Amino acid sequence: MSSPVLFSDLALSEPVLKAIQSVGYEQPSPIQAAAIPVLLNGGDIVGMAQTGTGKTAAFALPLLSRLDIKLAEPQILVLAPTRELAIQVAEAFHRYASEIPGFHVLPIYGGQDMTSQLRSLKRGVHVVVGTPGRVMDHLRRGSLNLSNLKSLVLDEADEMLRMGFIDDVEWILEHTPATRQTALFSATMPREIRKVADSYLRDPQEIKIASNQSTGDNIEQVYWMVSGTNKVDALTRILEVEPFDGMIIFVRTKTATVELAEKLEARGYAASALNGDMNQQLRERTIERLKNGKLDIVIATDVAARGIDVERVSHVVNYDIPYDSEAYVHRIGRTGRAGRSGKAILFVAPREKRLLYTIEKATRKPITLMELPSGATVTRHRIDQFTQQISTTLAEQTDLTFFNDLLAEFSHKNDVSPEEIASALAFLVQRERPLQVKFTDVKPDRSRDERGSFRERDDRGGRDRDSRGERSDRPRGGSREDRPRREFASDENMQRYRIEVGRNHEARPGDIVGAIANEAGISSSNIGHIKLFDDFSTVDLPKGLPAETLTQLKKVRVRNRPLEITVDTGAGGNFSREPREKRPFSDKPRREGEFKGKPKVRDRDTKNKGYRGKKPE
């Protein structure tokens, strides 16, 4: 049996080796062992590996080893889909270069003061880590000089595709030296990502690290069927009895992060919101507080939680179910990272049963039903905590002489027993948080039919309701043809909405996708057809959007106009079909049929320019 490969065997530079030894690294992960030698030799790679496998070190360590520290110009550029991931990667570079004197790395992203970025770039940096939009801004300004760029990394390329950045990535690639080394990392390999690799990488070596688990065998996954109990009360019950260290709770909207954080704080939990409306300094401080234990619970949106890697996060709660399985996998990936164990809890409303089935089908893992802790269970837990506090106080041999004398005198003067005094004191202590808890417990019917989907009994007629809540007279033993499996993204599961922004307001599909995805937490892959008219537009979104989500979307602004989203009735408006303007600020013309913000869905039939259905306006 061959001995394991060590970092010292990989020909990394001496300063880099010293840095990784100081942080305790000895043996590279599979992606690191495979990628480092290729990148050290200047080769291009396409790496397929899941988040949490150590891919940041896989490219940072070899590229730092090839760095010319005397040249204070960007030699390494890393593109990341979100500001959180950009910050995380920049921190990793700083950590791995701790033994390289004079090293400078700069994260650049939207929402951060442009002046400070310009000042840092002018002083000189060796590595730039940025989101595509802000990197493009600097390239257009001329403030980012890539003439000496040696290496370019596309991190989480499939996520950049999902968020609608793939055109921006190609634009940036075309504005970098042709002699650069390129490393592309992606958890999956969609056709569009494969096309980028074929077009811009030179004879890349493919490295595929098979994931031992799609959603983590070390992550326990359970769900609670929302029925008869307020979600906040249900969450409180779980927090009462579930032993956790750190927790991330996912909601769909920015507003919900603040509202839920306030409700949990009022119940005595150390909780804080994390969303895109917070300035970057506050966001970073929130994550740091979670890391060092000053904060136990963070309530976040999908976009805000991107890239968070906090070891003490033992639990993830999907307070609002995500609209697609990919978002679910990314959410629960915040726990159980690098082999650690974790637990993921999913709240599912009856009308969301089809989403639960879709997630199970995509991840190929069952999500088991959890019983909501009863009032008796919570009471028992509080009593155990209370008695433990008493036992701990007695065991610490605290000097209780003063209190013994005080209560003995009280007992004698008032002719009451020590037991009665102890009961009165216990009552006073627990008044703010009563030991006895009374809940109305409702157990929803959770039977699965032959398809694995869920049915609820209709008490009025004894017939079943299907996954949409509609009454069904179909016999349970029907043929497969009678029981079609519908995908969530199909047209019948979509609703058309009207928004009050259009071509006359210089709106683009990418603007609309970005606004809805960021605010409603809907994956861009689940935002359907967008049609632009002069004074308004229409967009197809998943059916059953919560009322609070629609209320929030009404206020979201695109091109400085509120969306004022409503269900589309097909009436009114100017339906003229004037040609769209060319994409601004780009030397590269848009390919026909493409638009920023939504990945292309292709058919084998190429007569329709590669699109299934109508091309977007």
Give descriptors for this structure:
single chain, about 625 residues, alpha/beta, Rossmann fold, 4 domains, seven-stranded parallel β-sheet, 20 helices, 24 strands, disordered C terminus
Q: How would you describe the overall organization of this protein?
A:
It is a single chain. Helices cover 35% and strands 16% of the residues. The chain has 617 residues and is α/β, with parallel strands linked by helices. It has four domains: 7-208, 3-Layer(aba) Sandwich (Rossmann fold); 219-373, P-loop containing nucleotide triphosphate hydrolases (Rossmann fold); 447-482, no CATH class; 493-608, Alpha-Beta Plaits, CATH 3.30.70.330. A seven-stranded parallel beta sheet has the order 3-4-2-5-6-1-7, sandwiched between helices.
Summarize the model shown.
This protein has 617 residues and is α/β, with parallel strands linked by helices. It contains 20 helices and 24 strands. The protein has 4 domains: 202 residues, P-loop containing nucleotide triphosphate hydrolases (Rossmann fold); 155 residues, 3-Layer(aba) Sandwich (Rossmann fold), CATH 3.40.50; 36 residues, no CATH class; 116 residues, RRM (RNA recognition motif) domain (Alpha-Beta Plaits), CATH 3.30.70.330.
